[in-house]
Design a protein that fits this description.
six-stranded parallel beta sheet; about 230 residues; two-stranded antiparallel sheet; alpha/beta
């Protein structure tokens, strides 16, 4: 399956496109405290590369709170309220080379989307703070499925509804964690791993990523790779 030779480039958000300056973690902790009176509830919960609903469920389970009775939905709503405020912080920043990367890709024969563990509304809040919302045609989110490994087919399905037909072999996922790599490779997609998040370049080299780069400032490396994929080499 292909779309006239076009490729679909799907970006992770946190650690890949942006740093939210801790806004996501703070918002989860504030939401949990507001709902259940427990402070710093996610202190021991791993977050990198995981979906928001997954993280929230783990938080509830770790404090022996039920998650099948609407608590996750309550957490999501409260989290989004806090995120609107918390994203307005001086520590947030774009990762290196992002505006240049997006500008370059827009000039190429690719379609740009998202593949992220963020809730769709949360992704919008974060990207809007940087003026990036309009850069992405569509995407797959943690609110589509809490299992990140199922998100690539979700993204492909959404683009198909827009008349953009892609198979996994037409997709390139760009992310900063081993989970980003896994969710691409299990479906036969390509993956570019960037060491701009919590994982070192060395640890990412131990994954099945097609290429690993220090950051998206390394334009020659990732552009050469994307061009080779587009040409079928």
């Amino acid at each position: 399956m292909s779309n006239n030779g076009k490729k679909l480039v799907l970006f992770d958000i946190d650690g890949t496109l942006i740093s939210a300056g801790g806004a996501g973690t703070r918002s989860m902790n504030l939401a949990f405290h507001a709902l259940f009176g427990i402070e710093d509830a996610f202190r021991n919960i791993p977050m990198a590369g995981r979906t928001d609903p997954q993280i929230m469920k783990d938080g509830l389970k770790s404090h022996n709170l039920p998650y099948m009775d609407g608590n996750v939905g309550k957490m999501e709503a409260m989290y989004l309220e806090y995120l609107e405020r918390e994203i307005q912080n001086s520590m947030r920043h774009l990762k290196p080379g992002i505006r240049e990367t997006l500008s370059t890709l827009r000039k190429m024969d690719v379609v740009i989307g998202l593949l992220t563990g963020n809730l769709e509304k949360g992704a919008g809040i974060k990207l809007n703070a940087f003026g990036l919302n309009d850069c992405f045609v569509d995407g797959a989110y943690g609110s589509d499925d809490e299992d990140r490994d199922k998100l690539l087919p979700v993204a492909i399905g959404k683009f198909a509804k827009k008349g953009l037909e892609f198979g996994p072999e037409d997709c390139i996922v760009i992310g900063d964690t081993p989970r980003d790599v896994q969710c691409a490779k299990i479906h036969g997609a390509y993956c570019i791993a960037v060491a701009t998040g919590p994982y070192t370049k060395e640890s990412l080299l131990d994954t099945a990523a097609d290429i690993v780069i220090d950051s998206l400032e390394a334009t020659d490396k990732y552009l050469d790779f994307i061009m080779s994929v587009m040409s079928g080499n």
